[in-house]
Specification:
single chain; Rossmann fold; 10 strands
Length: 323
Amino acid sequence: MEIGGFKLTGRAAIPHGKPSLRGWINALQLAVGAHESSPYWIGDLMAYSETRGDWSEKLSQALSLTGYAEQTLKNLGYIARHVAEPERQIAPSVAHAAVVAKLQAGEQHELLDIARDQQLTVTELRQEVRLRSRRNVLEGQAVLEGRYRVIYADPPWLYGNSQPSGSNSQSHYPAMTIEQICALPVAAHSLPDAVLFLWTTAPMLYEHPGPREVVEAWGFTPKTQRIWNKVDHNFGHYFSVQHELLIVATRGSCLPDRPTPMLPSVVTERRGELEHSEKPDSFRRDIAKIYDGPYLELFGRKRVDGWDVFGNDAALWREAVSA
């Protein structure tokens, strides 16, 4: 094949004479298009071969001439049968198309649009697909709108019969299992670069599954924690407990926008008149000092200017963000 002053062979692009810049661009565009299209061409050819029963005796020998592993050819055929041309056009790569091949066309298109616009890797897209499959586990899941950069959450952890402190959290608000908390669609409403601040207690930290599994199910990676010294204490099995932990986790790249002056890792503030499990407003203000939004608070107890807030009962998440 010749184009733009170049002869394109099976393994080379050979110039004839002195090609023009326009000719070189035309040849390059053809080469790039062929590189992107060839896996789909192979897949379509494989899909067609499966309709030809009269080829069955000679097909294996013919496929061996390609130099591709038989499983690779079958995989490309599967993608070709399940991902139509409109979705192929927006897929960043055939590997991205493979990730969504098992989904319906509408969801394929939506996810591939996101992958292209947000430059998701294949691994990131696979994680998004996996998280979406869990989204309908919990009845009354959030009807959230948009995506957030900062998520601040104080889940109603379900302990055993009582907390180590001796106060039963379930008498104050409906507790949730780890599986229910994991199933909340937080990842779907988090920007690719986002930060999560997640409250937990010292004994809950070591549960398995526990907070770490929630962090990962929501699409984040734990980085560090902040400690709230409540001054007042509750009696525990091993110590007089006067602290709680605020886990800090990120997805993508999300270091503080304003890292200085650096905030202390230990905050000493008396609980005072706060309700059971309620946290001081100073933590939310500190988050806003170092990070720009948009901001989302989950399991919040009151409306806060500048934040979208959802209550401590998952059923209340049906309430629209703008309400």
